[in-house]
Structure formats: C-alpha cells, structure tokens
C-alpha cells in the first residue's frame, strides 16, 4: 500500500509523533510506502511531497511542530482538491490519504472522502473541541503550559497586589481555560460558552482583598465575551478562512478591571506559546496510538473514518459525525469549577 500523509491547520504538539507512528506501522509493520505532502493540502495540490522512511522520522517523537509544515487553505482551493481528488490520488499513486488536523482539516477530509478519495483522518487540536473524541493530542501540553503560567503569575501578582488577566487559546470552546484555570487555581475563569458579567469579577476581587488576599488571577479564553451591557467590547471580523479574529479580550478586561477596581491589573496573552515546544508524555502516547490505528484502518479499508479516543480505547468514527458540531464545555463541567463566571 502507498500512503499519503499531511498535517494541516494550526500546528499542535504531537503532530510529529503521529507522522512517526504512521511511518513505523506502515513501513515496518506492513511493508508499505509513505509519502508526506508539504504544508498540508497546499502540497497535495501543488505536487510538493517527499518520501518518508524510517530514517526520515528518526528523532522526531519529542519535537514540537510538524516536519511536514502546515497551512490553512481557502475554501475555493479545497473545493478544487475535492473536484480533482481521484486524479490527484492516481497521480501520486496513493491508496489512502491520512490528513492530520482540526475541525477545518477534518471537514476538508470529509469533502475529499465524499468525492471518492480513500481517507482516514486523525484529529488534532490544542483546543480539544473535536466532537466524537474524548481528547485530542496537544491539549494536555497546552493545559500544562497555561497552568505553569498561572502558577508563576500568582507569585508576582501577590508581590505587587495586582490582578492578572491570563488570556489562553480557545476560539469557541473554553477547554484550555477551564482545565488550566482549575489546575492553577485561578480565581476567575471566563469561557466562550457562557458570557460573563464584569461586575461579578469585580465583586470577587473586592471580596478577596477584603479577606486579606492581595491578588487575583483571572483566566480568560480568547473567545470569551462579556454579557450584553456589561462592558464595551467589539467582536472581531471574519478572516479569509472563515475564522473570527479576536478583539483582545485579555487586554480589554484588564483595562476595565483596573478602572473599576482602582487596583493595578495586567494582561498576559499566552498565545502561540501554548502550541509550541515538546509534547507531554500523554500527548506523545495518544498521537502514537492514533497513528498506529490510522494505518490499521487503512489496511482494513475503513475509509471516511477518523481515529477517536473513547474512554481508554482508540475507536474509529465517521468523519461526518466528527465535523457536524464542535465539542464545547458542557454546563456540568462549568459547575464543577466554581470560579467560572
Ligand atoms: O485552533 C487552534 C488555535 O490554536 C486556536 O486556539 C487559535 O485561536 C488559533 O488556532 C490561532 O491560529 P493562528 O495560528 O492562525 O494564529
């Protein structure tokens, strides 16, 4: 069998572990050939690819990013790929494509699959917002980075009697804010799933100071938004990939809190630090398992499917099921974290 693999969308710690695992299982386990397309679907359309053998993936398990490069692609070019997918598969001689990516990539994978290309998807995203899988690799690493940041910010906040507003990634789903906020013991957590009232945050900080506590840390997801009438805040515009640009809730909230509290507040935007660097052991293991199962699925002819973690088992689920809606933080998970506003 000849397998094509690509990584698309925003990168994420653990992508190289999947590539390595696919190559190991395919080459050593099945005597397959593997080629890797560069820069996601762009490489597939532009004919940029390279053979991946055991040497090519040696030493990459712990490396962040992706050795293949990643890119987002405009919808029009994705349609072009779907329209020509049988011809593309024939020209590269591939029997299956394994695209590794988030919601956008898996939607593209579904389009290609519907158009007749044999596809087995592998979900990735630090946001952990893909339906049908309990976890995506990259999330554990991002939560670890954000938690460490909250731990560190507490000591400097206390020295200066400040309010720290830590903005973490999470466009439509607040999983990183929820779990890093819980793990770091943030005093306030704001998520995209529930609009927050600034007055509640002000009250919480004032009560803390009245109890003799001299600082507060608020963890806010980049996609969180204030309740109507609670604070002036303009939503961002939509970019060429259909994603909302963020209007800087961390900065805006810090300014508002400083103004209302009469205390110093500082924004800390963690940004792409959460996506860079070496994956945690958990993410390496999950990524490796997903790669192994993707190759096995390809050999069974289970196309149009995606690997997924269900409990502790890796299962295969239809791509169509995975891309219908995002997995957002449910109410009961918010209730467990008492600091969600
Ligand atoms: O989807 C993953 C993600 O990291 C989001 O949390 C974030 O909003 C976005 O990607 C940032 O993307 P870019 O790399 O285009 O800045």
TrEMBL record:
Chief location: cytoplasm
Site, Important for substrate specificity: residue positions: 104
Subcellular location: Cytoplasm
Pathway of action: Carbohydrate degradation; glycolysis; D-glyceraldehyde 3-phosphate and glycerone phosphate from D-glucose: step 3/4
Segments traversing the membrane: none
Active site (record annotation): 127 (proton acceptor)
Binding positions (substrate): 125-127, 162, 169-171, 222, 266, 272-275
Matching SUPFAM superfamilies: Phosphofructokinase (SSF53784)
A biological-process GO annotation: fructose 6-phosphate metabolic process
E.C. numbers: 2.7.1.11
Keyword hit for Transferase: yes
Binding-site positions, Mg(2+): 103
Cofactor field: Mg(2+)
GO CC annotation: 6-phosphofructokinase complex
Domain Phosphofructokinase, chain residue ranges per copy: 2-297
Catalyzed reactions: beta-D-fructose 6-phosphate + ATP = beta-D-fructose 1,6-bisphosphate + ADP + H(+)
Family: Belongs to the phosphofructokinase type A (PFKA) family. Mixed-substrate PFK group III subfamily.
PANTHER family for the chain: ATP-DEPENDENT 6-PHOSPHOFRUCTOKINASE 3, PHOSPHOFRUCTOKINASE
Known function: Catalyzes the phosphorylation of D-fructose 6-phosphate to fructose 1,6-bisphosphate by ATP, the first committing step of glycolysis.
Self-association state and partner proteins as the record states: Homodimer or homotetramer.
Protein name in the entry: ATP-dependent 6-phosphofructokinase
Taxonomic source organism: Streptomyces zagrosensis
């Amino acid at each position: 069998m000849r397998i094509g693999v690509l990584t698309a969308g925003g990168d994420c710690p653990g992508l190289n572990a999947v590539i390595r695992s696919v190559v190991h299982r395919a080459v050593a386990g099945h005597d397959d050939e593997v080629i890797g397309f560069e820069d996601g679907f762009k490489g597939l359309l532009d004919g940029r690819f390279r053979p991946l053998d055991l040497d090519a993936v040696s030493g990459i398990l712990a490396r962040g990013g992706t050795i293949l490069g990643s890119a987002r692609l405009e919808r029009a070019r994705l349609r072009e790929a779907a329209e020509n997918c049988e011809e593309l598969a024939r020209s590269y001689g591939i029997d299956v494509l394994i695209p590794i990516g988030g919601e956008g990539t898996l939607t593209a994978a579904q389009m290609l699959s519907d158009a007749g290309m044999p596809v087995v998807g592998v979900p990735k995203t630090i946001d952990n917002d893909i339906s049908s899988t309990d976890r995506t690799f990259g999330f554990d690493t991002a939560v670890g980075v954000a938690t460490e940041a909250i731990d560190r910010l507490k000591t400097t906040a206390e020295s200066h009697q400040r309010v720290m507003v830590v903005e973490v990634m999470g466009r439509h789903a607040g999983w990183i804010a929820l779990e890093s906020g819980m793990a770091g013991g943030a005093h306030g957590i704001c998520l995209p799933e529930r609009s927050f009232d600034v007055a509640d945050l002000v009250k919480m900080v004032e009560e803390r100071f009245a109890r003799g506590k001299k600082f507060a840390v608020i963890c806010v997801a980049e996609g969180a938004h204030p309740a109507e009438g609670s604070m002036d805040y303009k939503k961002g515009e939509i970019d060429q990939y259909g994603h909302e640009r963020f209007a800087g809730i961390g900065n805006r909230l810090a300014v508002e809190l400083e103004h209302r509290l009469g205390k110093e507040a500082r924004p800390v935007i963690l940004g792409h630090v959460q996506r860079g660097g070496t994956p945690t052991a958990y993410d390496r293991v999950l990524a490796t398992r997903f790669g192994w199962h993707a190759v096995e699925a390809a050999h069974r002819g289970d196309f149009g499917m995606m690997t997924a973690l269900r409990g502790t088992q890796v299962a295969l689920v239809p791509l169509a099921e995975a891309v219908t809606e995002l997995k957002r933080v449910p109410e009961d998970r918010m209730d467990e974290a008492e600091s969600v506003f």
